[in-house]
Amino acid sequence: MTDNLSHAPAPAVTAASSGRAQNVKIRARGVNVFYGAKQALFDVDMDIPDRTVTAFIGPSGCGKSTFLRCMNRMNDTIVGARVEGAITMDGEDLYAKGLDPVLLRARVGMVFQKPNPFPKSIYENVAYGPRIHGLARTKAEMDHVVETALKKAGLWDEVADRLSHPGTGLSGGQQQRLVIARAIAVRPEVILMDEPCSALDPIATARIEELIDELRRDYCIVIVTHSMAQAARVSQKTAFFHMGRVVEVGDTETIFTNPRDTRTSDYITGRFG
Ligand SMILES: Nc1ncnc2c1ncn2[C@@H]1O[C@H](COP(=O)(O)OP(=O)(O)O)[C@@H](O)[C@H]1O
Ligand SMILES: [Mg+2]
User: Fold this and answer.
1) Residue ranges per domain, the chain?
2) I need a surface site. Which of 31, 116, 125, 268 has the fewest CB within 10 A?
3) Rounded to two decimals, what is the model's pTM?
């Protein structure tokens, strides 16, 4: 089209070389997780790219939620849970001694299966985190933070005239978007979602899927889903877990059309799980 484009040099680096290492947001190496004596994850290696939706799929109990929780140290809160190995975000060790897990959980937000708004107003649900983290100095600044987060979560138009109403009074799908707004309000880098649509009807699910697709422009997103169709619709990368191991990870299209491992093809064609 333009001279600029036609003379643009070919990309000098490939994904396989270290030149695009900055695109990896979270890197896991040799991750083992134990609950007491029981091992739940075995030697997990994974590179999770930034500004991409990565889906975790696999049969129930295979370790998807466990691995998700490793990324914001939620496993720290489970008595008897132990994490071995290395997990870094932009090269920073997430398990370093000096790292505050509470601050980490603002940077790596989490959304659960069941929407869990606080028993507070819609406004306060979103303002809560920014207030704790000192992200707004004045009421006007806080109003702006709340409005921006609700807009990003695709909820503003539905709640702008009732910000003082309880968050728990919203529909399930709206509550899930409120929880996403709450996560966004503290300026996360990564958003982890553990089966975020499992409790929602198809219309609310479609709305969340659209939202996830918009959010990937700004965030690294990881979603656990038991729906193959959802993984295919919303993700660009897919990791298949089986019995505590990552069997296969790659481009979603490849995983669904041309998987390497028979366990993957058996699962996606519905032979088990
Ligand atoms: N809090 C816990 N205490 C003990 N065992 C757990 C706990 N959470 C998960 N597990 C066990 O770890 C394994 C992986 O579970 P999980 O990560 O929840 O799998 P998934 O999310 O893929 O269904 C399962 O065997 C499960 O029973
Ligand atoms: Mg789970």
Assistant:
1) 24-268
2) 116
3) 0.91
| Ligand 1 atom 16: residue of nearest CA | 63
Separation of alpha carbons 209 and 222, rounded Å: 13
Question: Residue 58 and residue 241: Cα distance in Å, rounded?
Answer: 5
Short-list 215, 32, 22, 33, CA closest to 111: 215
Angstrom CA distances, 177 to 210, 219, 258, 259, 265, stand at 11, 16, 34, 33, 33
Beta bridge partners of 41: 33
Answer whether 78 contacts ligand 1 (Cβ < 6 A). Answer: yes
Residue 138 φ then ψ, to 5°: -125, 165
Residue 202: phi and psi, rounded to 5, are -60, -35
Using the mean position of ligand 2's atoms as its centre, give its distance from the Cα of residue 208 in Å: 19
Tokens of 179: 């929880």
- Confidence (pLDDT) at 216: 96
122 and 159 in contact (C-beta within 8 Å)? Answer: yes
CATH topology of domain 24-268: Rossmann fold (3.40.50)
Q: Which tens digit of pLDDT belongs to each residue from 23-37?
A: 999 999 999 999 999
Shortest-distance atom of ligand 1 to CA 244: 14
pLDDT digits (tens, 9 = 90+) for 40-50: 999 999 999 99
- Rounded Cα–Cα distance for residues 158 and 133 (Å): 27
Q: In angstroms, rounded to a whole number, what is the distance separating the alpha carbons of residues 31 and 244? A: 10
Which three-class secondary structure state does DSSP give residue 56?
A: strand
